[in-house]
């Protein structure tokens, strides 16, 4: 369906030229008719009006087709929404029941301005600075829209903590977690994305130095045995 809609602008151009060609054919036939039949001028008037009506109809139709073609280019989700389909549910680390429980969890604020709530306190070790960690995360704007997620990629994200390999708020938040734990990080703008993130299909824009929210679960620390 998408490829068909891309051809609509081309068909509108063809329709315009075809209409013009028939207009020239009418003029030739009418000029011949004027020489052969005295009543032909009246026929010329009728044909001209019919031709103008047909061209106007074709122009309106082509404009409508062009509009639908442009709508198809904007987003594939437009057709799903128009059909009344529900938006695709993305996997989360904190479901509805978790969200309700989180309301009663006390907020912790650090000196940097980072805030967090522990969804689940882990029973394993905390990662030493410079060690690699494997963590799952769901990154959201404050409204709850997801803009990145390791769950959608199907594997934990591995990085070295305390080495500036991720944004500062995530780095700081994971350093005090324990393996098996799950935490929600409320990351202020200065600890988030200095340059922001551009929007993409299914992903909201993240403005530069704007706050973000990360749900993080610390899965394991490669090479470090549980204590």
UniProtKB/TrEMBL annotation:
PROSITE patterns linked: FKBP_PPIASE
So what does this thing catalyse?
A: [protein]-peptidylproline (omega=180) = [protein]-peptidylproline (omega=0)
Q: Which SUPFAM superfamilies match?
A: FKBP-like
Q: Which PANTHER family match?
A: FKBP-TYPE PEPTIDYL-PROLYL CIS-TRANS ISOMERASE FKPA, PEPTIDYL-PROLYL CIS-TRANS ISOMERASE FKBP16-3, CHLOROPLASTIC
The taxonomy runs: Eukaryota, Viridiplantae, Streptophyta, Embryophyta, Tracheophyta
An example of a GO molecular function for this protein is:
peptidyl-prolyl cis-trans isomerase activity
Q: What is its EC number?
A: 5.2.1.8
Question: Where is the PPIase FKBP-type domain positioned along the sequence?
Answer: 130-222
Give the keywords, sorted: Isomerase, Rotamase
- Pfam families, per the entry: FKBP_C (PF00254)
Spans through the membrane: none
Source organism's superkingdom?
Eukaryota
Put simply, this protein is called peptidylprolyl isomerase
């Amino acid at each position: 369906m998408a490829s068909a809609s891309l051809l609509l602008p081309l068909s509108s151009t063809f329709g315009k030229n075809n209409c013009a060609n028939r207009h020239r054919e009418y003029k030739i036939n009418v000029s011949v008719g004027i020489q052969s039949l005295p009543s032909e001028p009246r026929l010329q008037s009728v044909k001209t009006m019919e031709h103008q009506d047909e061209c106007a109809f074709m122009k309106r139709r082509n404009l409508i087709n062009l509009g639908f073609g442009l709508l198809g280019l904007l987003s594939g989700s437009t057709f799903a929404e128009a059909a009344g389909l529900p938006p695709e549910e993305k996997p989360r680390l904190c479901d509805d029941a978790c969200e309700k429980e989180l309301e009663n969890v006390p907020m912790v604020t650090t000196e940097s301005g980072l805030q967090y709530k522990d969804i689940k306190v882990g029973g394993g070790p905390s990662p030493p600075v410079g060690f690699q960690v494997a963590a799952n995360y769901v990154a959201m704007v404050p409204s709850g829209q997801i803009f990145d997620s390791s769950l959608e990629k199907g594997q934990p994200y591995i990085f070295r903590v305390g080495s500036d390999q991720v944004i500062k708020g995530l780095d700081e938040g994971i350093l005090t977690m324990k393996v098996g734990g799950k935490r929600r990080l409320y990351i202020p703008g200065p600890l988030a994305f200095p340059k922001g993130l551009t929007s993409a299909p299914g992903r909201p824009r993240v403005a530069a130095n704007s706050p973000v929210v990360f749900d993080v679960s610390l899965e394991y620390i490669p090479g470090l045995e549980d204590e």
